[in-house]
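Memo subject: From amino acid sequence to discrete backbone structure tokens
Keywords: amino acid chain, backbone geometry, structure tokens, three-dimensional fold.
Body of memo: The sequence and its backbone structure tokens, given next.
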Amino acid sequence: MRLLRNLRQGPLRALCVFLALIGPVPALSQQLGLPDAAILTISSDRLFAGSAFGRRVIDEIESEGAELAAENERIVADLSREEKELTEQRAEMTPEEFRELADAFDRKVQSHREGQRAKLEALGARGDEARGVFLRLARPILVDLLRESGAGVILERSSVFLSSDATDITDIAIARIDAEIGDGKDLE
């Protein structure tokens, strides 16, 4: 009924409604900067790393990684000092006393190692989680690009044996994603 009303309001309006219903034509996709191809490609790594969202996450993880490395260096320096002191005290102790202190020191070293490994794994998991959030947020934008281009599929560029650079929409997708979600700080 609504379409009929639109038809009565003028042929130009009816044409616009019709074009909106059938989707874009190849000429329109080219006007939008999209390739006229049935298959598009995208580099998901470059999509993430090149987006404002990905750059923010990568910068945060690199910063936290650097802090973790500095903390690790401090712990290693402290443990080295403690080991040296323990070695110097060895001559003044019985073998049993030394063994007890050496075992306690070994447990301390192992505990620090496990703690640092857990922090590193948590940092890696955070990066994986952020990438998942990014892909969830980017999906509707990629679906729009697919629809607007008239293509049937978007393939991961690294999985394609051979393709033309003209089918790669990574840069277009990055621009759209940046415009839609920015760095995503408030969306996580």
Remarks:
- The first strand starts at residue 39 and ends at 42.
- Residues 24-181 form one domain.
